[in-house]
Amino acid sequence: MKAPFIALDAVKGAFTSFDAVEALMRESAPVPTRAEVRKVLEDLATGAVTRAEASDWARPWMVEDARRVDDALVWDALDWLFGADLMTSPAGYLHGPVDFQAWLIEFDARG
Hints:
By secondary structure, the protein is mainly alpha-helical. Residues about 1-15 have low confidence and may be disordered. The protein is about 70% helix and about 5% strand. The protein is globular and about 35 Å long. The protein contains five helices and two strands, in the order H-H-H-H-E-E-H. A hairpin with a 2-residue loop joins strand 1 and strand 2 (about 90-95). The protein has two domains: about 1-30; about 30-110.
């Protein structure tokens, strides 16, 4: 009866070690610069990247490393990008091309 628990503990230990390594790797990843964020906003507005690609790109800083983003403009733009693929229904998106262009314009106006 104890064998399954030992195996589970071994697996849990492996995931804990992996999580620690992944967290350490994230700590060394730099916060994106304004230029990098602007490029992704521009690519989204022009259709060079999909809304899902833009959201996936912003995700690490919004979900895992939010505390590391000190620049308010970068934070806001990452928030916009992270929400670019939010859906209002199975076939509808909350944001579209007009929003993406507006985000780029606001970013440039504030930057």
